[in-house]
TrEMBL record:
PROSITE patterns: GST_NTER. Residues 8-87 form the GST N-terminal domain. This is Glutathione S-transferase. PANTHER family: GLUTATHIONE S-TRANSFERASE GSTA, GLUTATHIONE S-TRANSFERASE-RELATED. GO terms for molecular function: transferase activity. InterPro entries: Glutathione_S-Trfase, Glutathione_S-Trfase_N, Thioredoxin-like_sf.
Length: 109
């Protein structure tokens, strides 16, 4: 199954890599997973069809077969749990890594 993520057709950060799809792309690249990117305009993000993928009309959305996810942290956690190498195997180290992942997505950012 092909993974597809959504991204801005024209990024408001002007290509500085701050858009939230970048963290998902990075995780997929680190996990060695192929993916496709669907580029959308701001107008397309607000359409009912897209809101079935992302209820807030934002990016990214993640599609893999019947699985649809939104929110970059949830997507990254899914990728990390599904593909080896992104999270430690030891339960305590894994919990700490997940804690830091959420800190990076919220507190630090």
């Amino acid at each position: 199954m092909t993974i597809t993520i959504t991204a801005f057709k024209q990024s408001p950060d002007r290509g500085r890599g701050l858009a939230r799809d970048m963290r998902v792309r990075w995780a997929l690249e680190e996990a060695g997973q192929p993916y496709e990117v669907r580029l959308l305009s701001f107008e397309q993000l607000k359409q009912p069809a897209y809101r079935t993928l992302h209820p807030f009309g934002q990016i990214p959305a993640y599609q893999e077969g019947d699985l649809i996810l939104f929110e970059s942290g949830a997507i990254i956690l899914h990728i990390a749990e599904r593909h080896g190498g992104l999270l430690p195997l030891d339960a305590i180290a894994r919990a700490r890594a997940i804690s830091w992942m959420f800190a990076a997505l919220n507190t630090v950012e």
